[in-house]
Amino acid sequence: MPHRLLIASAIVAAGGASLFGLVAAQEPASPAPEGAPAPVAEMIPPPANESPRWAVVERHNLGGNTTVGGTVVPLEEITFTAQMSGNVEMIAGNEGDFFKRGTTLAELDEAGLRAQRQAALAAIANAQATVRNAEVQYQREREEPSPKQGGNMMSQMMPMPFFGGDRETGVTRGATLHQYRTQIEQAQGAVVTAQAQLREVDAKLEDVKSVAPFDGYITHKHVNPGDTVQPGQPLLSFADMNHLQLQTDVPTRLSAPLTPGFVTKVKLDDPNQTVVMARVAQVFPMADPTRHTVRVKLDLQEGAPAKAGMYAEVLIPQPESDMGSAPAIPISALVYRGGLPMVYVLDAQNRPRLHLLRLGEQYGDRVSVLTGLQGGERVLLNPAEAD
User: Fold this and answer.
1) Tens digits of per-residue pLDDT, 300-345?
2) How far apart are CA 216 and CA 74, in angstroms?
3) Contact assessment for residue 177 and residue 141, using Cβ atoms and an 8 Å cutoff
4) Dist CA 19 CA 22 (whole Å)
């Protein structure tokens, strides 16, 4: 009888241990303090008909990383200035208002220019009338020469048409025709001058209006309706806030990895210290001779929670600096439980166990491991496929 009780107790204990192991495999481990050994939990092996892929954890030399601060700026930004003196007639909106391309954002009073335009049109009409009159006079002189003015008493008492006494001589008539041609040319010149004045006024009328060259937002109003402005005075600033860049001045000794198309991480100075990806868009060809820095612009990823003017830091890898070594695993080996990174590792009995990791920097398709692995372990690749 005592032997039967002892056997039953052993069965119950074994069943409890199996149940505890199953629960431990299903519940994710809580984060361990830094420096403490990573917690492990057994998992149910994958089905026998599947052959999971395993990879040996290798240690890799860690290159150093440097952070350089910069400022988030709009991809496109413009400040409209007054092209002439006058009063501000209209400002389309306030800071933060969105406007489509082609919208008039600011306008100066154009009453004076409208009057100048009317005067230019009148000058054109007068000059054209003068041209027509001079052409008529010239044509009349050619077809019917004017009679000679004055003359002696004999010619007045006894006209001598066969001597041409009542007509101008050839020299005099030529001078008269030249005079009319000169009047035509002068009148035509007056027309050209008046037309040029009209074009000048029309150009000034175009300068009266500030039109949005792209879709964007008003970022700053420098004047208000009714203000008097002078040429060159700022009216308002306008920017494309939907496409942002990080502008930073990088020391020349650190700028080698930053080439157009290079992708790196940027940490935003927001409450969450959000990390986003950015791609190098432009590297200025010349360094600042005073500060010995190179200006670099990076396109932030779409949807980044950044604002123009925000401070941000860009991560610049320095592979030549020796920062020691650390285990590195393929990103495909990671599995997340409760938002924590973990990996399946084969133990000495070839049983897969779940290890909690603390990750470092990412290098291509691999990521360094700060705690949780030592190197030499076998980790499961694509664990989601084996679950």
Assistant:
1) 998 899 999 999 999 888 766 556 678 989 888 999 888 889 999 9
2) 10
3) yes
4) 5
